[in-house]
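Hey, can you fold this one?
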Amino acid sequence: MTPVDTDRPPDAALVRRPARVRVLWLLVTVLVLAVLMVASVALGSRDVAWSDVWAALGGADDTLEQAAVAKRIPRTLLAVVIGAALGLAGGVMQGVTRNPLADPGILGVNMGASLTVVTAVAFFGLTSPTGYIWVAMAGAAVSAVFVYAVGSLGRGGATPLKLALAGTATSAAFASLVSAVVLPRNDIAGSFRLWQIGGVGGASYERIGQVLPFLVAGLVVCLLSARALNSLALGDELAAGLGERVAVARATAALGAVVLCGASTAVTGPIAFVGLVVPHTCRLLVGVDHRWLLPFSALVGASLLTAADVVGRIVARPADIEVGIVTALIGAPFFIHIVRRQKVREL
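Sure. Predicted structure:
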């Protein structure tokens, strides 16, 4: 992929952060995530006492309250791992393309993965959960290449706004296709609502176990690409001068991000804006060094999705608001702010 230069002046997000500041933010982030995980287990449509929470954490499910808490535990774990994956993928995508608007949802990657799974289930009888993941990763990869190719057309190449517009249009088209495939099929319409919205309500230990190896593989690839992304941020020519194999570095990092996006979507459906909001927030906290930025993006992404799930459960009791809706309400205004802040004028 050809990098995109936004030609914007340096700001507070680009200032190098001292190590002690980064360590402090690391401790704060871990503490916040721990608190949110406890809140996710304790809060929901049914009020439960802390004694029932501790009993359920110990394996008891003798009462309705304890059974409710027991169901929240895998839901919390799924929100943590998927939020971490999406936050990390967003940081990598922004680093690979040098595009401040890059996000798996905005660029249509998640919806492309969703469409391929729905199509495989409806027309080819796909039933294997592991098959969902492989198909979703293939769809995510094809969608990413397609959006980048469309966004590169015309004068100026792949500018941030052109990529965002191409991704948004592609995502909308894929969402319409998902509806067109699912709605006439009464046998799958109810169970496949998550492929249109995205949520963690159907979590189970089995589903987490199936997707975890793919997420770990994607996480390792992305984290190992951190040093290369630092070189790419200097520009292709300088990176090559420093001995970096630019094409290989960019392709490897992009592959890790696609694996994370595809595997996440296979389990939770398309959840947008986590990969946009999180890396920008983390740059304010720890600077632009990807060796710090990527792990922080994973932690903050886990915190954001867990918090969004808790909010979705308590604001509409006894019903749930899917986490994909909550993240959209958070991310859409942030997206508009980033576009205005970057002063991108070329359509």
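The chain has a mean pLDDT of 84. Let me know if you want another pass with a different chain boundary.
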